Here is the input.
Amino acid sequence: MKIGCRKPSKFEWIFCLLLIPVGIYFTDLRHYSQTLSSIGLGGGVGALIGLSWSRYRYHRLSPEEKREQDRMERDERNRAIQEKAATFSWRVLLFALLGAAVLCMEIQISSASLCFALIVLGVGANLGAMAWFRHRM
Here is the structure.
């Protein structure tokens, strides 16, 4: 299986395209929103570049490799791995939100930095859980 050779969904394209206006909206506001601007612009443009690269690599595959790739995306084993990883990362994120709420009560921290840290934690937990479950199953 080639890494990065999958056909991106329409939802992924739409989500990335919506991140860019969010980043532009938060550009000229107060200082604490600069992190949201960076997430919107950087995440949107970076994700569009990644999705374009993935689409390009997918279209370079032979028809047999495309069928194999599509079959692997719809495979029951891979679906089970994705569901377990999503459940695990959701639990991690819920406990992180609880910890963040307690932390915000004790010390002064900007909400934008906290949101950025929680987003990174959620994505990292999902990627780590998928790798762990692929290794175990």
Q: What stands out?
A: The radius of gyration is 18 Å. The helical segments are 10-25, 34-59, 63-74, 76-106, 111-136. Residues 75-137 form one domain. The chain is about 80% helix and 0% strand.
